[in-house]
Amino acid sequence: SEKVHSRPQAERGGKSKEMCKKYAESVYIILPDPIGSGTFKYDTCAVVEPLITNGKDAEAREYPHMALIGYGNKNSISWLCGGSLISERYILSAAHCTDSGS
């Protein structure tokens, strides 16, 4: 009789765990301890790095499908998000643009 070989079962959630670990490693850097007692992990997650280099301002109406999303009132507006016009009534933006944090 012919042997039946089954495919090895991957651990459930294994890829997620692998990628999470890989990401976690990328946000920490190892630095020498300031008092000379070894090394420590420095979390770079909250360190702001400029994402645009040598960029230039867009001209008015250069990207007519883009939207600038501001917060506040007409006397004090903070322009913090952007989006894409997907119809006459809707703008597609990232979830954090509308999350009030509550």
From TrEMBL:
GO terms for biological process: proteolysis. Residues 52-100 form the Peptidase S1 domain. It holds the Pfam family Trypsin. SUPFAM superfamilies: Trypsin-like serine proteases. One of its GO terms (molecular function) is serine-type endopeptidase activity. This is Peptidase S1 domain-containing protein.
